[in-house]
Amino acid sequence: MYWLIITFLYIKFLFTLTLVRCTEVPPDEVAWESLVFTIPNAITEKGRACSMLSSYYCLEGYEGDMGEGDPDNEMELGTPNRQMRIAQLNRVGNDFANQIFPVYLGINFFVNPTGNINCCSRQKDVYIRHGLKLLELTPSEYLTKLTNYNDDPSRKLNYLEVNYNERCNINFITQIGFGPGFFKINGQNRRPEAKLMFPLMSIPSIEFPNFGAEDYLTFHWFKYNIICQDHPYICGWGPNEPRVRMNWNQVRRRNRGMTRPRSRPNLFERNPRSRQELRKLRSIDAPHFSIEQCF
Predict the structure, then answer these.
(1) Dihedral sign, Cα of residue 110, residue 111, residue 116, residue 122
(2) Above 50 in pLDDT, residue 38?
(3) Do the Cβ atoms of 281 and 227 come closer than 8 Å?
(4) φ, ψ (nearest 5 deg) of residue 175
(5) pLDDT tens, residue by residue, 133-174
(6) Which of 71, 124, 163, 211 has the smallest set of CB atoms within 10 Å of its CB?
(7) Cα(168)–Cα(161) distance, rounded to whole angstroms?
(8) pTM for the full predicted model
């Protein structure tokens, strides 16, 4: 009888220990945060609005993971005076609006789908929803998140919104995000077997593999090949930087045979990390069609 009790207690201890280990959060698991960009395109409402403002990208904001909750509702729970809470949010939001106004054009922080270049009511709403309620950041801290484009190792590809194009058998990237945390992808009509591509005529058409895209589509690549093509100062480039490609109108005229194509600049020179990425991209099959043929 004594040994039965000892055996029972030992089994119970092992079961409890196993249960605790299964419910523990892994120490290396970090919260999802992402610097999210909308890519100009003719597919989505945000993409169409963004294409009116830029040929390369529009910054949506630095976002947190909402999960299944709504931060707007959660913040009001237990609030003794709702009007006082709203006034408090507006004061902090106005503080952010004053800080973002001088720089929002230089980072394409337009906040679609309005297609409006003005500032700063929509930008303030993004800060209150994501910066303040979800991430608990001050206006200055959130501004730093929006304007910091350093090659941080923790800034990995962690978000994609794609739309499948049957005509060209391509998953077009309509939104992209970089930051810490797990990877998630949206797109009801996406095809896992189809490759990824940006629906842009302002950069060379490059196909990325659907699986393992994070190994090729890094923030470093995105910054030098898309962000800095619109705003060279972010990469420290001068006004006559040869790595800046032709602008949108030049590309359209070239595709129509109205101008001679300018020699393609070597975007990877003076950049050892980018040369490594170029070698990877050369192993990917180049598409044999123009983006315009897909629409």
Answers:
(1) negative
(2) yes
(3) no
(4) -145, 150
(5) 999 999 999 999 999 999 888 899 999 999 999 988 999 999
(6) 211
(7) 18
(8) 0.75
